[in-house]
Give the backbone structure.
Amino acid sequence: MKAPLARLFDPKSIAIVGASTAPEKPGYQMVKAFEKFPGQIYPVNPRGGELLGFEIYKSLSDLPEPVDLIAMVVPPTASADVLREAAKCGAGAAFMVSGGFSETGGDGHKRQAEIIKICHDGGIRLLGPNTSGFMRPSKKLFCTFLPAAAGLKPGNIGIVAQSGGINITMAFMANEQKLGISLSVGIGNGADVNVADAIEYLAEDPATDVIAVHLEGIADGRNLFDTIRRTVTRKPIVALPVGRSDLSGFAESHTGNLMGAYELTCAGLKQAGAVVVGTTTALIDAAHALSNSRLSPAAEPGVGILTGQAGPGLLMADQLRTAGIVVPAIGAETIAKIAGLLPPLTYLKNPVDTGRPLESFGEVCSALAQDHVVDALLVYALHEADSVDFADAIGSAADLSGKPCVYGTQGMNKDIGPLIKALEKRGVTAIPSPDRAALATRALVEDARAQFRILTSPPDISNHNSTEATLPRLPDEASAKDFIGTMGISTPQRFVCSSREEARSALKKIPGAAVVKILDPRVTHKTETGGVHLGIRTAKQLAAALDQIDSINSGTRKKRYLVEAMAPPGLEVIVGARNDESWGPVVLLGLGGTTAEVLEDVSIRLASVSKTEAHAMIDELKSSALFSGFRGTPQADKEALANIIVSVSRIVLEAPGVREIDLNPVRVYEKGAGALALDALIIN
């Protein structure tokens, strides 16, 4: 069990090993950053002397007391010796700014393994290596080589960044928006203290109301998933994963291509309950809104939009609706009340367009906020000095309704600065941009949805017992289909043929047209290699197909064939799964066929997947309308597809040795007619 992080993030004494009297060196800057720290400071350097009014001790063993925190500004080759001495002296924690460890490969891995063992054996919690440190303004604790960080203001936003540079960047971005931070920490290599550890600490920190997280790569996705899920029922989490350009290349399966690291990370974070954003600005804006207020759990919270200018109002409404957020029709009573407050020719529904704001703006705002379909209020108005007291108008509406409110505006900085400050004091999130204000509102809604999902459908991602069915060491399509059949997944009638004669005999047993395929576990992309032939009815057509299959160079001495009944047309999807190194068993659904990678219309869940969650996966596809009867087409059998998703989830959880599953295509028929897996690839 890991030791708590109190001695790291709330130390009473700090030793700086590698302190320097040279102002240009990090060892000097680190000591300077601690000048205002109210606890004990002990610079350490074998040369001794004095630095910035502090006595320099020659070694850790010379210190008058065991210290809580060791700030290490030493070369990587000296780190192990420093940590050994720190352990002997009873230090509780350390952070290491130097690089040269696992991020460099080779000897760096060995050095990192060595310091991890020293810290583990000595009871030291280590932040880093390769970290920018952390800042905790309320404690006057600036554990970083950047003295300017001492200007950061305290507040209720916690920041956890894997990148040291992003850690400092986000802290300063928050400061620029007059937002305060409770703790901002750069994880670096995460040799000991990782992202999940920092989130757990902030979850218990009374000064933190919202947690903003930056992620570059995740070593233990399941641990992070569990940590986030436990936390979001108490505090919201906003996450910025990076790696969108990470392409999986031509993987063995379509699932492998579609389930890249970025897509999987986003899916895991959302399923855990985090609000996922795409930029640092969005991360800060979302954290800003959630630091002021939080919606109660709800399946579909409604947003009321009030605008003094039509264009920004339409832009905000469009952004919310595109994101699937409800901008509901307000009640007739509310419309009548608003109509009595506004001049003719204004738009009285939702969004409400007031035209140039008049004295009634506050009453309109309050009327909209109090409508029962409105859970959060989004307001936009350009700043006009001779117009309305927006701080009072919007603040009063927020106070009266008790609902979260986001205000977007624009104007000269000197004019809107005092307005924003006044609104923030009233608990209103004020942002100088209509689209950023819409994004902040979206974060409120997505957080409320996440809370609702967690409270109403706790996931089952526990370990399951292994299935009794067994797979061959190297399954081909036929054995893969036999296996999924034991899990209740339907497949077409088929015959395994070891010779041309057997293939001819099989063709005669199939009513209607047949599909002829190469049966070789070494050929995973059969269509691309000429290993699939459709609409085979005659002996001549069969011979031509077999000739082409025989010409495929797969390394197999004797070719085998799969002769299958050709399935009727239907809606094609891909259902896949894989055991990911970080996230464990994961299930994927997407629009399928040969164009699956091109369309990239997918939904991803960590297993196990319940029937309810399977239906949710279908509904969140961009192409979901196809399943509900699009332009006169019959409704698809969503229940049958959901059953297949659940079965694939069971396989990846229960079947020993399964690395990837690819059912592509699965052909889904009209409601009540079921679904067929036309191809099955299992990689173990």
Summary: The radius of gyration is 30 Å. The longest helix spans residues 434-456. The first strand starts at residue 13 and ends at 17. The CA atoms of residues 12 and 39 lie 5 Å apart.
